[in-house]
Fold these 2 entries.
Entry 1:
Amino acid sequence: MNYRTRKGLVPYLFVAPNTLIFALFVLLPMLYGLGFSLFDGNFTTGLGHFIGLRHYQDLLHDSAFIQALLNTLWYVGAVVALVVVLSLALALMVRETTVATSIARVGFYLPVILSPVVVGVAWRWMFGSELGIINALLTMNGGSPIPWLTDTNWARVLVTLASVWSMTGFYMVLFIGGLNTIPTDVYEAAEVDGASPAQRFWKITVPLLVPTTLLVTILATINAFKAFEIILVLTSGGPGDSTKLLVQNIYETAFDKSNPSYASAQSVVLFIILMLLTFIQTRVARED
């Protein structure tokens, strides 16, 4: 093997460990899950018998799956919209590097490093119907307790706000990076031409932040579709099934109902939805 050939193999050697890990822990399980969804097996019988697309046909008439899908779509839409707006607003607030903004950045980012279980427990302590701090304060001041976790509408609002609070700091950092890539002379030229702050924001900041906004939207969408721990701890999918999302439904189908092959079919549907949404978001951004 000559020197040129050995030199050409060096990049592949560097990416080989990551490629191997990706194949073993992501690609192979994904392919196995896709194949498993075509059988009627479980944890005791293994693959079982080949049934083709029967599981996918059953999903069309599965009221629990459809309800979880609708809940997920509502949740994702609300969370992504709030995350994009709030993270951009925070990034604009703390863009300049000063002592005060540095402290604010740390404060806004702290929820990101907390475990989702910790976030769920903390919010449950604050908004619990009986022992919650917020209801205790309301009662002490002559108010009436609010059924945060037992009312459908309040529960949906609460899980949305908890999720947004836990992830906004991360996307704020991405927006700060995007804002720092915009040349300052562009703003100076616009200011000299008499552009107002609002005009500079809509005509300069927003268009030049399209790549960062696309990245934030895609990542936030994926993370919202994968939401599980916060909601499980906070509401357990209740009241009723009003806050039960797809991931929780998949988990319960696989382990509580001992039907992992049917759960695999639901996972494949979730993967297809994510792929389609990511493709659509990318195409729309390219056209813009």
Entry 2:
Amino acid sequence: MRHTAHADYALRVLLYLRVAPGRQGSVAEIAEAHHISRNHLVKVVQRLAGAGIVTTARGRGGGVRLERDPAGITVGDVMRTMENDFAVVECLGPARFCRVAGVCGGRDVFARALDAYFAVLDEATLEDIAANDQGLRGALRLINGPGGR
């Protein structure tokens, strides 16, 4: 299974915010730190804000801020927020055109596999995946503040 770039970017936004001074930053700073499109990040941040994971504010002192405690944000929450299709095989999705649907045992196997996948993602929190504060700050050039300044 492969997730969309938006799901990947959502995790990157949250990692940045988790280790950033004051746990906030601008979309431009986050895009620059990760070398990714600012336009894509705007959409990602809007979706995260809609889910109550981050808050946004315009103007001086504004930006993106973690709304919830990193220990309470699971990777599973983020994936469910950012993705809308987890049908790894057609019979798990809303449209079922497979000729062997209903007589094949594959649907149950893939459904259990998906359940196991989310069980792992639901155990991992933002706090867990961002545990290496110093390493993340260095990689994102946040040692001396946003943008490495």
